[in-house]
Amino acid sequence: DKHDCNFDYKELGAEEIRKSNPVIVAKKEKQARRRAPLKHQTRHHHHQPL
């Protein structure tokens, strides 16, 4: 991702998504944070449908 421009296109895209879908993005981030520490246990639990 090296180029002469300092503009962060990825962050701009993420910001646009957050502005247009604040609830959806917040929900995904919350789920990701909640699951992260439990990765080693996932195979012992049944996944519930979303």
From TrEMBL:
Residues 23-50 are annotated as: Disordered. This is Uncharacterized protein. InterPro entries: AN1-like_Znf. It comes from Caligus rogercresseyi. It comes from the Eukaryota. Residues 30-50 have a biased composition (Basic residues). The lineage of its organism: Eukaryota, Metazoa, Ecdysozoa, Arthropoda, Crustacea.
